[in-house]
Amino acid sequence: MKIINRLKIRLMEKMRKTNALSHYEAYLKNQWRDQHTLQTEQNEKLSALISHAYEQVPFYNEYMKSHDIKPEDIRNVEDLTKLPIVDKAELKRQKDKILANDIEDYSPEEKRTGGSTGEPFKFYLPKKSHSLMWANLWRGWNVAGYEPGDKIGVLAGGSLLSGFDLKRKVYYYLNNWIPFSSYNMSEEKMAEYIETIQKSRIKLLYSYSSSAYELANYILKHKVDIKLEGVITTSEVLFPHYRQAIEKAFQCEVYDQYGANDGGVTAFECPHHDGLHIGMERCAVEIVDDEGNPVPDGVEGRILLTDLSNYAMPFIRYEVGDYGALTTEPCSCGRGLIRLTHIKGRQQEFVYSENERKVHGGFFSTTFRQYDAVEQFQIKQDRVGEIVIKVRLNDSSFEKELDHIKERIKAQTEMKRVTIELTEQFEKTKGGKHKFVINNVDESS
Hints:
Structural class: alpha/beta
Strand order of the largest sheet: 4-3-5-6-7-8-9-13-12-11-10
CATH superfamily of the largest domain: ANL, N-terminal domain
CATH architecture of the largest domain: 3-Layer(aba) Sandwich
Radius of gyration: 22 Å
Strand content: 15-25%
């Protein structure tokens, strides 16, 4: 069966014109090389990318010439501070200048991403980048025991499962994916998902963090006996109480992953669960403060990504919108890949107090994870200083405690008004993710 499954993957590779398998085999070995060697090779790729951008990409050619910057002035990640930080809005404004003059040489594919804001963003990705993405993804899954072609359940929405037409069904079949939609997480549907997982003998589940958490709560509530070899979470912040519930329900370890294909990054947890190892072969990561200045190891800041493989539409110092911190300290596992110590989440996951102080959604997670009765929550803000907290309880007797929790949140966040509402329904993004903070306040207003 493994031979047949690997042949299916090879057929998929041929259809999409990628060679991820060969990169995957190389990456499995590469991750054990020492950090200095990996950084030296990363700097070589960075130098080549900058030279290409200078010669072929009008935006960078104009910028570097106007600031008297030569390609040889940028030889390592630290030198990237000489170039501007860009985000989706800037890339949209520069859409005619950000594409390489020789873009067709890289057989690019048009891709779209909405991110947490749901705002569509079109970009171009070469076949090589697509191959490296899959190689990095599989390497992260391998920590949980996966080999390309193994059967895996995928519980997600549009960013991972983009439809169920005939073409997509063939795609899932060749990848040996059993798809489960995160758009419908009713009790009836979750019962179907669990039955399919058991009948299909799925060993691993790849899922949005919130969706795996919802399914885990159903399993625990109904005392379903189900055991997997691993659950791999992605696309959303994995809160500690999410991890705890998922591991208890599925009787296995959870391995978190972080990825942004537009920025070229894939990062994964190893069995030590001490940060996420970055795929340095494809992406260089920087952390900067609110003013754009580099911060020391371990200090939280804005994540900037440079895709070392995308020559069609270079993403250099691309601000994806997440916060996190880096460490170059060796991991106990022995991998040489540097790590993100944590991912805090999107800029949009802040709410604003009456005195315009920023309060990250993680504060509410820390608050509610103390109570087993709180199954899920969502924060909504329409006005500065006011929030509505929607809560789902699994124990109705806990309702009497909500007033005390509300007053404590109000005092600690300095909010003018805090309202808590009980609900069974939560708003999701167009991609089917649970949006735990809905901030409708214009930060610039």
